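Z., the sequence and structure:
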Amino acid sequence: MIDNTVAFIGAGNMAQCIIGGMIKQGYPAENIIAANRNAEKLHNLKSQYNIAITTDNIEAVTKADVIVLAVKPQMMAEVCQQIIEQAPESQEKLFISVAAGISIERFEQLLGQVRIIRAMPNTPALVGLGVTGLFPSRCSVYEQSFAEKLFAGTGKTVWLEKEQDINAIIAVTGSAPAYFFYFMQAMQQVAQELGFDEAEAKAMVAQTALGAATMANNSELSFEALRAQVTSKGGTTHEAIETFKHHKLESMVKDAMYAAIRRAEEMAKTL
């Protein structure tokens, strides 16, 4: 698998994250090439990982066996048109897209009936603790295994049975870091009201969130059971949880996640 040359079209945060994970997992730097209009981003990648770089998308895709489309969704049509017009032989290669909202049907309109995997990583991938949803179209078992290897350095991968599950994983994992940050922000604000300075409040909340997440990840118990372990009836935690219930926190979370799905569906129609 490491013999495949992988071209990244786009060198933003997610591309950099995947490249970094590949290098950490032992993927040869000489088999990775990144293309981007921004020369500064490219030189940063070159100095950090010693990969090949170019400002010419066509040079990158021509050299590649696997093409990772990591440009903004609004730029995807232009990039795909350029690839098909100037490097039509690329249709025989494996494509992987990390762009949100662009369906397999739309890619087939842009690229033809190519072998493609849609990937939906989340931002904790930047620290190797992400979740990436994957959906393949016309791909072999080997190509799916390669995609898993590609994302191995970014965290966990989840194969989806239906393409529409991409929108569900956006709500469950893609947007979810922001949910936690929002909750942590509210906790930090209260901690500051209680007299802790900004840095202390942030550090305490972040460490508590990290500890709770680590406990959950290392335990076979359900979230409900873990919560019950620290919730003595009539105690302080019980009072806080009852307040959340009174304000219908679970309903708010449900509404928010379904709102994310609806927005993902709406965005897909415009790209």
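The chain has a mean pLDDT of 96. The CA atoms of residues 77 and 262 lie 23 Å apart.

Let me know what you think.
H.
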